[in-house]
Amino acid sequence: MKIRAVATMLALGATLLGALAGCGSHDGGPQSATPPAAASAAPPAATDAAPVTTEELKKAATAAQESAGEETDPGDASLERLTAIPESAQLPGGRWKVGQHYHPVVPAQATSVEPGQVEVLEFFWLGCPHCYALEPFIETWNKSKPAYVKFVGEHVMWGPAHRSHARFYYTLQVLGKADTLVPKAFEEIHRHGNMLVASDDAQSQKLQLAFAKANGISEADFNREYNGFAVNARLQRAEELMRRYKIETVPFFIINGKYQTDVAMAGGQEQLIQLINDLAAAEKSH
């Protein structure tokens, strides 16, 4: 009986940790996190593009992780962060503890915001169920955040599926439709089971174009920007930032190039928002 009880407690603990964890560069698609109601929902209208399978996503993401592993050692990066925590990189004593709820970025990185502003970066993936679950919190916070905070969403670029979603995201951004259509894209992927990515780039573009047209974007406008200079420049910037901050999981947040945290470290979604606000306020007061 005792052994069964311990096993049950361990399983429950693993489940709770999984609920707070994020999607890593090794993860596949969001299929396992699809709500039960969505599993029986009617599939989206068929197209001539073959959707990518979950197995293909896993293979692509695994390859991306192996490639990233050749450039950085996650253990070394974690050790570096924990052995260099200067007094100036800590919040005043109280609720949040450095090394537990947040870590300093070592070394601190320059940001692209104007003087007096504080940058909050979110690294995410459209296919990540944890990013989808956090999106309503971020959307609400973004509408009421302090005026000195500049929020920037950056899409990860781990593997082919992530890169395809990133190109789609930045196309919506360049077209000025990200605020309204990114939440709809999350819904399309996680509630309706349409991954918006296929087994090759041309098919992915067809799926994403169909979504764009269904939401009021003309085919000419979408195709013009999809492989255009502005989108390619944003993709290059996302790649650079991802490597600079050694992003290995999403959703993941960088506050003013100095602090990093996520849902699990903060202790929950609401706690994460509070922690971001406190770190941003501390930066503003410097």
Search tags:
5-stranded mixed beta sheet, 286 residues, alpha+beta, 7 strands, 12 helices, two-stranded antiparallel sheet
Q: Roughly how many Å is the radius of gyration? A: 20 Å
Structural class: alpha+beta
Overall shape: it is elongated
What would CATH call the class?
Answer: Alpha Beta
CATH architecture: 3-Layer(aba) Sandwich
Instruction: Report the sheet-strand fraction.
Output: 5-15%
What is the H/E order?
Answer: HEHHHEEHEHHHHHEEEHH
The CATH topology: Glutaredoxin
Mean pLDDT: 80
What would you say this structure looks like, in words?
Mean pLDDT is about 80; it is low at about 1-20, about 30-50 and about 60-85. The strands form two sheets. A five-stranded mixed beta sheet has the order 2-7-6-3-4, with helices on both faces. It has a two-stranded antiparallel ribbon with strand order 1-5. The chain starts with a helix and ends with a helix. The longest helix is centred in the first third of the chain and has 19 residues, at about 1-20. The protein is of the alpha+beta class and about 290 residues long. Helix 5 (about 130-145) runs antiparallel to helix 7 (about 180-190). The protein has a single domain, classed as Glutaredoxin (3-Layer(aba) Sandwich), CATH 3.40.30.10. Helices cover about 55% and strands about 10% of the residues.
